[in-house]
Amino acid sequence: MRRNKTPELIVGLDVGTTKICAVVASPRPDDGLDIVGVGAAPSRGLRRGVVVNIDSTVEAIRQAVGEAERMAGVEVSGVYAGVAGGHIRSVNSRGVVAVSGKDREVSQADVDRALDAARAINIPQDREILHVLPQAFAVDDADGVREPIGMSGVRLEVEVHVVTAAVASVQNVIRSVNRAGLTVHDVVLEPIASAEAVLYPDERELGVLVIDIGGGTTDLAMLRDGAVWHTAILPLGGDHITNDIAVGLRTPMADAEALKKRHGCALTALVPAEETVDVPSVGGRKPRQLSRQVLSEIIQPRVEEIFTLVARELTRAGFQDAATAGVVVTGGSSIMQGVPELAESVFDQPVRRGVPFSLGGLAEVVQSPMYATGVGLALYGARRQQPATTWSDTSGAGLGHWGRRLMGWLSEVL
Length: 414
Description:
The chain has a domain at about 90-165: Dna Ligase, domain 1. Residues about 1-5 and about 395-414 have low confidence and may be disordered. The protein is built from eleven helices and 19 strands. It has about 425 residues and is of the alpha/beta class. The two termini are about 30 Å apart. It has a six-stranded mixed sheet, with helices on both faces.
């Protein structure tokens, strides 16, 4: 059976430290998405959100996208790829221009010039700008304007959130995707994508903090008045919890991961004293039986450290009291029992788990915090349909889908 190529399908590709996840979706007229295919593969080529082995990453991308294509029964050619990692930096900037149109009416060209003025910040040569996200406009004395086009004035001002990344790290993600035979429509910061998938409109307005706890990194995004005001990536995540369990209980890493997923709890107070767990040993020794509270006592300090570092980052940026609507925790590691309760005690604010919503099609497949970034990337793509540019790695640029796939195969054979 020949699988038909459907250009309007959107693919979000979450290139994570523990898993690579592809979400194929079809946009709906009401701004929602119909999920038509999902694929995931273990990721072995990344460390703390950064590609360290291209071949392993390419293989995992092929696997995840192939699985999603089979489920959807279609062939995909381009993706919206997520990036994270400790190299991400963000800053708030401002741009001011004179309104140039006739009758002093603000036009799209004026808005574009104001955004260009705001992005003219001094960045080192080895970094590039990923996003320039408008927060608010001001026309003459009227500030807090959301939509300035059509207003009259002589001076247009814009406040923006600028996200920069290391050129090499972004290129390695693009190169991996290109070598897997796919084009990159856009590169998106992962916490911005996660926020797209799990936040309600009233939370965005009031002020909300999104914490995405992944395998290698914890990503955060602070939104207020419907716009992004702060983003950061912390090089700590679920893998560190697994490592703590492996060292603390002297058990292999794979078994430590299984213990964390099956029996882990981030708040010892929630664990009944009589519950026990079987802990496999290393070196062929017999498994031991331990109280589940001992496991929880290893997990809690690390999760607490992650939330404390997030709180410290917010204070450093001056946003410690900005999350009026509370905190949303998402990402694979937030599935663990006790995570929202522990976050509530650290932030002293209401906390909920963030799960992708307002989806159709195979929605139940992605109704888990671990798919927040993948679904968010597809939503980001749907809202910016018909991309003007395609990001490419110079080695595969201009070859087209099949040319790149052929190059990928040749590089494997040779």
